[in-house]
Amino acid sequence: MVIILTGLTGCSELEPRSGEEYSAYLFSYFVGNGPGQEQIHFAVSEDGFNWRALNQNRPIVDSREISNSGGVRDPHVIRGEDGETFYMVVTDLHVPTMGWSNHAMVLMKSSDLIHWESSVVDIHEAFPEEFGDVYRVWAPQTIYDPETGKYMVYFSMKSPNEPDIIYYAYANDDFTALATTPEQLYFPPAESQNRASIDGDIVYHYGKYYLFHKADDIDPGIKVAISDRLTEGYELHSTERVDKTREAVEGSAVFRLHDSDRWILMYDVYIRGDYQFAESTDLLNFELVDDRISMDFRPRHGSVMSITREEHVRLLEEWGSLEHFVTGVGAEYVRHRNISVDTDAGTMHIPLWRGADPARFDPRFETLSGISVIPEGAQDFSAGPVTYTLEFDGEPRLTFEVSAEVWHNPVLDGYYADPDIIFSEKNERFYIYPTSDGYLGWSGTYFKTFSSDNLVDWVDEGVILDLEEDVSWTSRNAWAPAMIERQIDGEYRYFYYFTAAQRVGVAVSDEPDGRFVDIGQPLVDTFPEGVTGGQHIDPDVFRDPVSGKYFLYWGNGYMAGAELNDDMVSLKEDSIVVMTPDRTFREGVHVLYREGKYYFLWSEDDTRSENYRVRYAMADSPLGPLEIPEDNLVIAKDPSIGIYGTGHNSVIQVPGRDEWYIVYHRFTYPKGIEMGGDAGFHRETCIDRMEFDEDGRILRVQPTHEGIDPVELDR
After folding, report:
1. What topology is assigned to 19-319 in CATH?
2. Alpha helices of 243-391 — where are they, by DSSP H?
3. Residue 122: how many other CB atoms lie within 10 Å
4. Which residues have CB under 8 Å from 715's CB, separation 6+?
5. Cβ-contact 161, 175 below 8 angstroms
6. Whole-prediction pTM value?
7. Least crowded by CB within 10 Å, which of 39, 51, 217, 715?
8. What DSSP string describes 495-513?
9. Residue 637 to residue 645: CA distance in whole angstroms
10. Across the beta sheet with 150-158, what order do the strands follow?
């Protein structure tokens, strides 16, 4: 969508000479190696820490129109010395069809950052004698050379039997070709045992040139070489990495924060799919600032350039959305993660936590500099949407409608998944035990619990088990716990079954929210007889009210069950049975009992799929056999209200009443459906009513944003 905001540009200089005259930053990047992902994307920020993608995170130019391969990567943008021209260089490479071999780059030029002229530079064709055999031409960047008055392009190339080497050449005056033969720019010292150097990024500071680069040596990572001259004399400062991770990294880029002596180093933690930001005042010693970074996109190898207010607004006029102008909502009781904006329709919906009064609600909009929102102060949202107008320098420019209402879903504030719920007779409170979510590749390492007396208002009771501190046999992948309360010799004990490193463990406490003590070894770490594939995950624990016995269930790809010994921390091995109901079973079994029937609920599909959902079977005993009703879908997505990935559930009965609620996770709303596979570890915990028909069949549950009303216990 193009938002027309004429008259907003003002009279800022096109070539600022001091930091005060820059007002924002432009981030150019690409998003991945798959089909259609090797394209140039733009994002903007006012502070260098909080970034929003332009053009709805779609490309700003079609790679097929500017490249030989159909794909471009590693975009690097600079401002020209005339203050009126911008230069961008990119790698010409389409990994899906070419692998990692290429021999071209693209030079691009623009006068407004919107419209770009481009030329392909094919190294084989341009320099057949010197570099006719190169098969990697990667990550070009540009810098102005004041000694020659020309723009220098530097990049890495690899020839057979040689490592990747960083070269440089000068562009012609039109910036359409290389005017000089590439020469080696950086010569790693022999003692560094450097096997390759790629992804160079040069920063000029106080008379010296700092060449950040990825060094493939005895400790691969981002290193710095320094010189007094742009084109020669670079000496490695240290064999120590300046990046702040031990993971594989590439694509470093450095930019200075406005009105500051602080520099930001950012780099692509590419195997993990992450992007890190670190800060320095000397360009040599950096500290992570990831906790201050927010991005509504996931970048790969990019660069940042400072831009003026005029340039910022120009970009927003072309590719911006309402969220770029209204950057936040500062009021209390706002569910910030769940705010939804439809730029095309000109609408914003603000969900509120219980306790807010929609009849007297002031959103306290946060805006782009120079923009105000009218009307100000508290408004009555209880009667419907309120119309707001954006004004710039006192001139109305854009109107939009805002609605606000109280929602009870999600019930927990943050990313939490795989919720298991109990009612503690000891404390007369409900407790939810979820997976701590939001970690790339489900890499969380700790468990928390939350308590409530009404199923709506939940208190964070903190960490109850930390794999890194409390578990001796592993420290990774804290997933999908289950809890049960048992009274033993008049004292309550709590047994916490959890997944870690694709095995089932158990820990014990005297309190439902106490620190739990692991028994020191996994409870389940082998396949049941007859099972050869799947994972030992997703435990569920169940007390049979008929026999008084306790049972454990688990499995991904298969479903197993067994009776627990009286110690609650070991299985009766001869009771283990495989109970996989049918091909819809994936994981997350949960068992309940109602009116003589045992119900087995499970999740179908993959948690990264929007079609993740819950089905059920019935049985006459806690270990089956299972009977699958004809229509056995319990809960599924509802695209009409933006709810997807509804699965991995537990169920709670209100004590003393035939009143049941399903507790489940879904993709985070509204962004989850746009996240692709990342939605599978950005999930939210919700509660809705679950009912049965007269024959005991579970009626399909409608997932909602509104959730349930507070439940009053019979005291």
Report:
1. Tachylectin-2; Chain A (2.115.10)
2. 309-319, 322-325
3. 15
4. none
5. no
6. 0.81
7. 715
8. EEEEEETTEEEEEEESSTT
9. 6
10. 136-145, 150-158, 165-170, 183-184
Catalytic residue among 216, 279, 318, 418: 418
Question: What is the DSSP pairing of strand 550-554 with strand 540-543?
Answer: antiparallel
As given in the structure block, the two tokens for residue 396 are: 């109305």
47 flagged as catalytic:
no
Span 642-652, pLDDT tens digits: 999 999 999 99
**Cβ(495)–Cβ(517) under 8 Å?**
no
pLDDT in tens, 591-612: 999 999 999 999 999 999 999 9
- The answer to whether domain 19-319 and domain 416-690 are alike in fold is yes
* CA–CA dist 9, 12 (Å, integer): 8
Q: What angle do CA 632, 636, 641 make, to 5 degrees?
A: 150
DSSP one-letter code for 711: P
- Encode pLDDT of 170-199 as tens digits: 999 999 999 999 999 999 998 888 889 999
Residues 6+ apart with CB under 8 A from 460: 413, 448, 450
Instruction: Break the chain into its structural domains and give their ranges.
Output: 19-319, 331-406, 416-690
- Does the structural domain 331-406 have CATH classification 2.60.40.2340? yes
Encoded amino acid at 657, one letter = R
Structure tokens given for 81: 């010395």
Residue 565 is given by DSSP the state P
Instruction: Tell whether domain 416-690 is in CATH 2.115.10.20.
Output: yes
Mind listing the pLDDT tens digit for each residue in 62-119? 999 999 999 999 999 999 999 889 999 999 999 999 999 999 999 999 999 999 999 9
Query: From the centroid of its chain, how far is CA 282?
Result: 30
What DSSP state is assigned to residue 673? G
- CB-CB contact of 451 with 434 (8 Å): no
Q: 587 an active-site residue?
A: yes
Closest CA to 274 of 238, 250, 309: 250
How would you classify residue 324: left for phi > 0, otherwise alpha for psi between -120 and 50, otherwise beta? alpha
Phi, psi of 641 (to 5 degrees): -120, 15
Q: Please report the sign of the dihedral spanned by the C-alpha atoms of residue 662, residue 666, residue 669, residue 670.
A: negative
Distance, in Å, from the CA atom of 4 to the CA atom of 664, rounded to the nearest integer, reads 43
Q: How far is CA 181 from the centre of its chain?
A: 42
Q: What are phi and psi of 539, to 5 degrees?
A: -70, 155
Set 587, 678, 684, 688: catalytic member: 587
